[in-house]
Design a protein that fits this description.
The chain is of the alpha/beta class. The chain is about 45% helix and about 15% strand. The structure holds 4-methyl-5-hydroxyethylthiazole phosphate and magnesium ion (MG). The site of magnesium ion (MG) has 5 residues, from loops.
Length: about 220
């Protein structure tokens, strides 16, 4: 188990993180599983299933879809994280859970998923960051850095200053920037000292998903 754990953590902490987030509603140009597979072939480092919106899958259909995503991620050795749905994550043995401030308390989620699973938490301030770190978060999501159309209740864009503050305060905790990130503006985010960048639409809406992942990867080398 030590070896397995190490492998998992090496994966999780692999830099630079190109963290793809998607639900069926984000896949407007192609089948969601085709989209995910192309992103994996391109070389994303993390995947989060974030099933939201009026036509979101639920129940058994959601579970089936999640299992398909998990199978693809496993084949590419990419950590598979579930947004919000702690029970689903536990049920299918996902690698981790990502929660926001409106979801369950971090302590509770950490207790439910156990020590070995990854817990990611979205934070917007030093106070929230402190709280999440103390409750056992393994990484923080911060944003929206830029304007985004992919989250209905997104806050105003905050840029990268907060990210820099929090990463100075907590140098050990990986921070992932999110919100409106594209290959054209990613360099600014890398320069803030992030561990990774998380994107939905830049990949979901790309004509050439594999090429776009590679653009992000090339930029990450330059930006840091
Ligand atoms: N949280 C903050 S912004 C955002 C989430 C889930 C949406 C990011 O999507 P996009 O398309 O990369 O701006
Ligand atoms: Mg949430």
């Amino acid at each position: 188990t030590i070896k397995l754990l190490l492998r998992k953590w090496c994966n999780l902490l692999n830099r630079p993180a190109i963290y793809f987030i998607m639900g069926t509603g984000n896949a407007r140009k192609r089948d969601p599983l085709v989209l995910l597979e192309q992103a994996l072939i391109g070389g994303i480092s993390h995947f989060q299933l974030r099933e939201k919106g009026p036509e979101a899958l639920t129940g058994i259909a959601l579970k089936r879809f999640a299992l398909e995503c998990q199978r693809l991620c496993k084949a590419h050795r990419v950590p598979f994280i579930v947004n919000d749905d702690v029970e689903l994550a536990i049920d299918i043995g996902a690698d981790g859970v990502h929660i926001g401030q409106d979801d369950l308390l971090c302590e509770l989620v950490r207790y439910r998923i156990g020590k070995e699973k990854v817990l990611g938490v979205s934070v917007h301030s030093m106070e929230e960051a402190k709280c999440a770190v103390e409750a056992g978060a393994n990484y923080l999501g911060m944003g929206p850095v830029f304007r985004t159309h992919s989250k209905v209740d997104a806050k105003e864009p905050v840029g990268v200053n907060k990210i820099m503050e929090v990463s100075r305060q907590y140098p050990e905790i990986p921070i992932v920037g999110i919100g409106g990130i594209t290959p054209d503006n990613a360099e600014t985010v890398w320069k803030a000292g992030v561990f990774g960048i998380a994107v939905i639409s830049a990949l979901a809406d790309a004509e050439d998903v594999i090429g776009e992942v590679n653009r992000f990867k090339a930029l990450s080398e330059r930006g840091r």
